[in-house]
Structures
1.
Amino acid sequence: MAHKVGGDEHERGRDTRSRLRELALRLFAEQGYEKTSLREIAERLGVTKAALYYYFKSKEDIVSSLVEDYVAELDELIAWGRSQPRTATTRGEIVRRYLHIVASGTEVFRMLHQNQAAVASLASAKERGELMRERMDALTELLTEPAGTLRDQVRAASCLMSVSYCCMRFQDRAPSQEELEQVVLDVALELADAAPAGSPA
């Protein structure tokens, strides 16, 4: 029984942390990073400031945790890609999985974009930029044939950038999220010279 109680407490803790991040993300996007305080986040969620400090010591910690989750997903994708044969089918699956990661994290990057001046001054900004560059370089390599030319590398990088940019840029213009993702996927697959999901190797 004691083990079950401990498990319940762990689940509640994860739920509280998740709700804190979701609320903070929404407030950062709606009213700005600088105008949102930890006290407001705690009050809106109905917890004490001390309880919030248990999970996050600062607003920067919240931003870092959001970006860290995104980077961890990219790392999983890169590790998977490196374990696969370098084929058009593999490239297609990398593009599809990358699109899913980007689409799921669009709100985080919309918030970062809306608060560029504020978040650029954070201590973690330089490190965050370096982390993303390393992942983009790794994915570009995975989307390029081993003997690929500069043109091939540019096409691969353009594929990744088109996914990242278009998911955020056209989110409010597309008839539906599903249609947007399908169009973005079609264009990205062309750029990566990749096979659609489900194609034979």
2.
Amino acid sequence: MRPSIARKLYYSLILTLLLLWSGAVASVVWVLQYETNEIFNSSLQETSQRLLSLVVHELKFSEPGRLSPVSEPKEHDEYLSYQLFDQNGTMLMRSHMAPDTPYPTLRKVGFYKLDNQHFYVESSLDGNYWITLAERTNHRKSTFYGTLKPLLLALGALLPLAFLAIYFAVNAMRKSILRLDHELSTRSSKDLHSINTDTLPTELFGLGETVNSLMVRLKIALEAERSFTANSAHELRTPIASAMAQLDVLRDELVDSRSQARIADAREMMVRLEQMTVKLLQLARAESGAAFNMSKMNLKSLTEMLVRDLYFRSSRRVEYRCPDQPVSIMGDVDAIGIVIQNLLENADRYASPDMPLQVEVSVDGELTIRNDCEAIADDLLKLLRKRFVRANQSKSGSGVGLSIVDTILGQCAGELSLKSPCYENGRGFAARVSFRRA
């Protein structure tokens, strides 16, 4: 499987996003934990200092001699509990949630953490009283996770949205590349028109201009080759016609049988040369891209005209079938005419003697031409579209007719299918052409 730029871009962006997201979450967790500890520690310290002064003040105005620890009169839910001691370590007061036994902390001002519970110890200015303030077990942890959970849910919900944004952004950037790829991959080898670079981004503009420059150079080279082929073939027609006229004169002047045989052989060679010249002209026209200039045309009337033309040039009978209504297709009239003419000539040339040709035009824009002959092997049938390949070497012909047909049909979105045998008796050859409907 070929590597994909879009897939690499997807994975790179998603991996980068996940790394940044993980770093952001780790930073948020660290900052939240740091700030939570700082706030709770400050709260412990501030609360113990205020509470110590109030409790000491209360003790100074309480009944003298009361040394047993007392708790607050009314129970309530509390996150902080305290124990108050005198300088001898006697518990003088405690909150109702505080245990009867002293908390396991030192008698030294400062913060302590034991078994997931946080403590703060504070003393009075004269050192006669000590207070130990304790948070509820795991209270700080539950507060931290309770705050972190909705924050992580919100950050986690952004991930699918970010993935979708990356997907649509990459797809939007891919469109210009896909348009360029589609325009280049769908055109045939004969289409050398310049590609449209107006919609290309800056990164692809240079590539588009380079491709256009290359196409211009190829077009110039091919035009020179086609021009040479067409001009050469056109220039050959005049001397060929003159030579044939001279042979006709010689045939009338030389009456002996030996001279007549030689003249007949020479005239046959000139006829074959003339046929080859016509095929070269057709080939030059086919490769010039004339079939790209498509317009609406009537396949039925064009086929009828060419069948009548074959009737005047050949004594073979033609069985022609067509629908009553016109059959409209898209194509160039001259180019489609070359296609039909070549198929009719091939069928006439290779058909068995005294056997008719079957020509059929369907309402779906299909042309089928059948002729009786020996069945063609599958290996040879696949090679008939190539130049200078013929099914029967004993027959006259140039071997470029089907190549011309295939070239023209490739330009006008037509399809050629060959079948042999095509009859139930195991004989015959059929050429079917599907044209683009108008």
3.
Amino acid sequence: MSLEDIKTEPKIKFLDIYQKNIDDIQNGSPDYINKIREEAIVAFEKLGIPDKKNEDYKYTDLNKEFNNGFKMYLSPKNIQFKVDDIFTCDVPDLNTKVILLLNGWYYDRENLIHELPNGALIGSLQAAAQKYPELVKKHFAKYAKIDKEGLVAMNTAFAKDGVFMYVPKGVVIEKPIQIINILMDDEEGFTQHRNLFVLEENSQASIVVCDHTLSRPNFLTNSVTEVFVGERANLKYSRMQNEHNGSKQVSNLYFQQEKNSTVDTNTITLHGGLIRNNVHVLLNGEFCENNTTGLYLNDKGQHIDNYVFMDHAYPNCLSNQLFKGVLDDFATGAFNGRVLVRKDAQKTQAFQSNNNILLTDDADINTKPQLEIYADDVKCSHGATVGQLDEDALFYLRARGIDKKEAKLLLMYAFAHDVIKTIQVPALQERIQDLVDKRLRGELSRCNSCQMHCC
């Protein structure tokens, strides 16, 4: 059976679903994956779904969201459509081959693994686990620890498919790889896809991930992505979240960086009813660099919660965090950023900043930047601001003939540009600039990319 009802109290029901559907869940997965599933479901039984008593989830009630009557996709549902007929991606023409996930499943069932130049691979994680077991087994569930986070354990127990990417030693993928996550069904659905990206020594790649909902029903997503970045490898990872207000998403993103590696990651949140983004970074060698940025534009009761854990485990590493938000119309948000500098991580440089603008009195943001330092030769800083548009700057613009509405838009765009300019894929940066401008003007609908206009 492909779908299973989620009926009552979350943890107990998910455990029951697992036991009743164990054959379907394990079907198509190799033994080494199913062994990890068994460990993961035990961990999930212990950890459960985090509630507001958990300090890291103090401002986001996930139990409420996971207690809805959504249906879980235990196998791909047969939904046939022509992508070009109903969907125009907000970030087109970044790569000649678009990778598409439909409700958490790799969509191109006829061609599950694509061989790119110089031995690089991209395709279905389920297929890769069977065809390239030595690669997947080496990295799967090694960075996203099932004993630390209940929803990671849950994803590991249930996940069947997602995207796998492998870039061999010394290989440079010139064009960005674009992955589009589409949610589309005539009934409410729950997806738990799993992604694994492996960049070996001296390799380079750019990944662009776009999240979209293309039909009216509500959806819930619990995704986990593991990324291994080898010595002297370079990764640019960009994500755009543009789902309708009935979509709820929890995303866990894990990076492990080896010596001299560089990762630039940014998340642009344009729409979504409830979004929780968890970013975990382990700087696992000297001279690593990580730049993690985010921009969120909330209104109409939307809720966005960003959590970042930056773990400096070795000396001479650099990390930068910059998150900015604009909240309007009783929207709510949270930012929790933690930087850990271990005892032996001398010469660390770590900088963290969260800045927010509240456009209305009923918008609300809770922010908590944190430094935890055990080394004594470091350069670290953190800070947060919450305020309104600068009245002096607004007066300056109006005094030069710019009307009040346009002056506010200019100030908001200038505020957001500090994050947009960190996007290092030129075509993506240009498109995001346009989308953010439309979003701030109220011209970007929550299903802007869908030609069906069902929402």
